């Protein structure tokens, strides 16, 4: 039973660490997701992001290393319950037709793993709950603290937080976004089902020929690129500007 228990804990730990790593690839997207979910009611979203990443990688790495003390399994169970609450709430809203598309990818894997609300809920349930239950099996009484393993957990936690801090400045766009090389125009879409809208529908001319396509937020970085975009027009290029911003943002 101890082997089965360790395997369950290790699997759950791997899921948590993978989820934390996916979110760390694009921490700003995770911050936005926290704001969308309304989880910044006590602390700023950036602070909640740091706490969430630290909890996920810390608990996950502890489980992988075989730490199945109650002070690891207890918080892990609460974290799993919290993920299921978030995905379950979105799933319920989706069934009633009141969920926003930004909520669809939430859950253990953040919003970079594209999933429907139903997929997010059932996948999180299937991946984490059985593994969590198995992790409680075959636990042995232990005295003292496993300082070496705790040191490894601390190192991994600090390392992931440092990676998340540096990620926006690293060449990770192919991993951190859904816009990868060779992505077809008709694969750049938003929404699901009947409400799904693809860029090839909005601008069918992009399907043929070569075009320089810029997809950006209306932020300070885009403002810095305006001179370069203007120069492209001055050099004879053509430019279409499509915006989904509100009138105030425009």
Number of strands: 2
The whole-number mean of residue pLDDT values reads 84
Q: What topology, given as strand order, has the largest sheet?
A: 1-2
Strand content: under 5%
Spans of at least 5 consecutive residues whose pLDDT stays below 50 are none
- Report the total helices: 9
Gyration radius from CA atoms, angstroms:
22 Å
What topology emerges from the helices and strands here?
Elements lengths: L1 H24 L1 H11 L7 H20 L5 H26 L21 H19 L11 H20 L6 H4 L12 E2 L6 E2 H4 L17 H15 L16
Antiparallel strand pairs: 1-2
Helix pairs in contact: 1-3, 1-5, 1-6, 2-3, 3-4, 3-6, 4-5
Report on the architecture of this protein.
With 250 residues, this protein is mainly alpha-helical. The protein folds into two domains: 2-170, no CATH class; 176-234, no CATH class. It contains nine helices and two strands, in the order αααααααββαα. A two-stranded antiparallel sheet has the order 1-2. The chain is elongated.
Main traits of this protein?
250 residues, mainly alpha, two-stranded antiparallel sheet
Précis, in short:
57% of the residues lie in helices and 2% in strands. It has 250 residues and is mainly alpha-helical. It has 2 domains: 169 residues, no CATH class; 59 residues, no CATH class.
